[in-house]
Write a structure and sequence with these properties.
The C terminus is likely disordered. Helix 1 packs antiparallel against helix 2 and helix 5 runs antiparallel to helix 6. The chain is globular. With 231 residues, the chain is an alpha/beta fold. The two termini are 35 Å apart. The strands form four sheets. Strands 5-6-8 form a three-stranded mixed sheet. It has a two-stranded antiparallel sheet with strand order 1-2. Helices cover 36% and strands 12% of the residues.
Length: 231
């Protein structure tokens, strides 16, 4: 997770510096650090490898918590780097995305439980395109019905603020993602469930790529979105 945060911090500093035309003398330093952070091949540090160490579980390559030590805790630590540190998304390499999907698939939390794994699993599953996406929605609904207090506080062991992020983070990740430079609508929304995004910006017709030089607008058309409206 820490390596994911560091990568995002440095890339963010470079992006902001470029857009704002500030601290240009520091960009080369930030880029040098970013390009030379530790990467991994399995559990071994290497050059040009993956951002996190990996291990094999149930025949699948998955992310490990640590290079040495507590490599698999089954409590959600394994996916903090995916969703919280923002190190993996649909725009990542196919290798990285597959490992993230494997990690999510090997960590499906038990239904009707208060395991802290829940608060990170559902948004991470949505972030990396876990399939079937309908199971994410149905599982979260079950968890809310079983664990929400009357004031809608999610009573899940081991979490505070992150408990409250379970529903909004999951729904947000399923309906729109933008953290990797593209705005992707309905990236992992169930194909048999209607949904609408409205007023993303003042008027759709007034928006053009020239208004946002650092962000591309990406509307991915697919049969899964038939019957949905977006504007």
């Amino acid at each position: 997770m820490s390596l994911g945060f560091i990568r995002n911090l440095l890339q963010g500093a470079i992006n902001l510096s470029t857009v704002l035309d500030e601290s240009s003398s520091q960009r080369a330093t930030w880029r040098n650090i970013l390009d030379n952070l530790t990467t991994f091949n399995g559990e071994t540090s290497t050059t040009g490898g993956l951002p996190y160490p990996t291990i094999t579980r149930n025949g699948l390559t998955v992310f490990a918590n640590e290079q040495i030590g507590d490599q698999w805790a089954t409590n959600g630590d394994e996916i903090w780097g995916i969703i919280t540190a923002g190190a993996v998304g649909l725009g990542s390499s196919s290798t990285l995305l597959t490992i993230a999907q494997n990690t999510v698939a090997d960590l499906i939390p038990p239904i009707s439980s208060s395991t802290p794994l829940w608060v990170m699993w559902a948004p991470a599953a949505a972030r990396v395109g876990y399939s079937p996406s309908s199971s994410i929605l149905s599982n979260v609904t079950t968890e809310v019905n079983n664990q929400a207090e009357q004031n809608l506080y999610m009573n899940i062991n081991g979490g505070g603020i992150e408990n409250e992020a379970l529903v909004p983070s999951t729904i947000s990740e399923m309906m729109m993602q933008s953290f990797q430079g593209n705005i992707i609508l309905f990236p992992n929304w169930p194909s048999n469930t209607n949904a609408t995004l409205a007023t993303i910006w003042p008027t759709a017709t007034s928006w053009s790529p020239a208004q946002s030089p650092t962000t591309q607008f990406c509307m991915r058309a697919s049969s899964a979105r038939q019957g949905r409206q977006s504007r």
